[in-house]
Amino acid sequence: MTAVDRVSGVFESQYGEAPALVWTAPGRVNLIGEHTDYNDGFVLPFALPHRTAVAASPVDSREWTVFSEGMGSIAFTASERVGDWGAYVAGVVWALGEAGVEAPGARLAITSDVPEGAGLSSSAALECAVLGALVDLAGADLPISRWPRIAQRAENEYVGAPTGIMDQSASTLCREGHALFLDCRSLDMKHIPFDIGADGLAILVIDSRAPHQHAGGEYADRRRTCEQAAKTLGVAALRDVDDLAAALAKLDDEVSRKRVRHVVTENQRVLDTVAVLREGDVRAVGPLMTASHASMRDDYEITVPEIDTAVEAALAAGAYGARMTGGGFGGCVLALIDADSGDRVAAAVADAFAEHKFREPVTFVAHPSGGAARAG
Ligand code: GLA
Predict the structure, then answer these.
(1) What residues act catalytically?
(2) For ligand 1, atom 8, which residue shows the shortest CA distance?
(3) Angle, to 10 degrees, between the axis of helix 122-138 and the axis of helix 86-98?
(4) pLDDT in tens, 300-354
(5) CA 151 – ligand 1 centroid, Å
(6) What gap in Å lies between CA 200 and CA 376, rounded to an integer?
(7) Hey, what CATH topology would domain 3-194+370-374 get?
C-alpha cells in the first residue's frame, strides 16, 4: 500500500469522507556536519525514503481535529496551547500565523514510517508534512524556501526544543539522488549528486535503539557553550573562527576548547566532503565520516557506548567510514559500505551488540529521496 492510500484510508475511517489532499515529508540522515547548524555552519543531509503523510480537508471554523495513527486524537483552536505530540501540529499553525498565513481550520490524519526517537527527524517530517498540507489548503503563496524557518520556529518557540535549521531544511528541500549542501547562515544551498549506487557503494543506517537519555538538556547545554565561546572569541558564531589554534589559546576552559574544536573541524569536514564528492571520489568520504565520529565522541562528547560499538564493528567489517548521525545520545550510525556487503556489516554489528548485551540494532540501506511534496 502506498503512503497516500494508507493515510487516505485512515482519514476516511476517522471522518467518513475522502481527504481533500495529502502531503508527505521525509525523515533525514545527515551525511556529515553535526551540531554545526546552530553555529551558522555547514551541513550535508539527505532525505530518507521514510515519510510522514498528512491527509487534510478544510472545515468552516478555525478548529483543528487531528488523528494520528500512532498517537491518537487531539482537537484544538488557535487560542489553545497544545502539549505533547500535538504541539508539532499546533506549533505549525502558530508559526504560519507569525509568518502572515492564516491556516484554515482542518481535519487531519497522520501516518508515518519514520522511526521515532531514532534521531531520523520524525518531528521535522511531521512539521513539514503538516505545513505543506495547511499551506496548500490555505492556497497561500508561500515559497518553499521559507518553509524550513517556519517549521523550525514551531519547534523552537512552540514545542520548545532549541534545534537548528538542518532537519526542517532537509525535510522540505532535499532532492532525490542528492545530498543537500546547506550554508546555515545564508541558507544558500546546493544539491550535490549522491548516486553512490553507481559506484557500487551504499549507506547503511544502523539504528542503535539506544534510549535517548538527557538528549534535550545536553543539546541545549552544547548550544549554550558554543554561544558563550563565540562571545568570548568576539565572533558572531563559531563558523567565523578562522584560526583554530589562536581561538583555542584564548579559551580558558577545556570543555569550551573541545566543543569549539569539534565545530570548527566539523565545518571543514563538510567542505572537504563536498569537494571529494564533486571530484567523484565517494570512497574518500569514508575517512572524513570516521574523523567526524571521533570528534563527536572525544570533543563534543555526544556519543553513547551502543553508538561507538556500531561504528567500530562496521569499520572492522570493512566499512569505508562510519559515524553517528543526528543530535546524539543514541540514535543512528551511518556506514559507507560496498553495496554488496550490507548483510555482512549488519551481521557484524548485531554480533557486537549481542556480545555487549545491547538491544538488537535495526539496519537498512538509505537511498537519498525527495523533500516534502503533495502526494494526492
Ligand atoms: C538535531 C537538531 C539539528 C542539528 C542536529 C545535530 O537533529 O534538530 O538542528 O543540530 O541535531 O547536528
Answers:
(1) 167
(2) 163
(3) 50
(4) 999 999 999 999 999 999 999 999 999 999 999 999 999 999 999 999 999 999 9
(5) 14
(6) 34
(7) Ribosomal Protein S5; domain 2 (3.30.230)
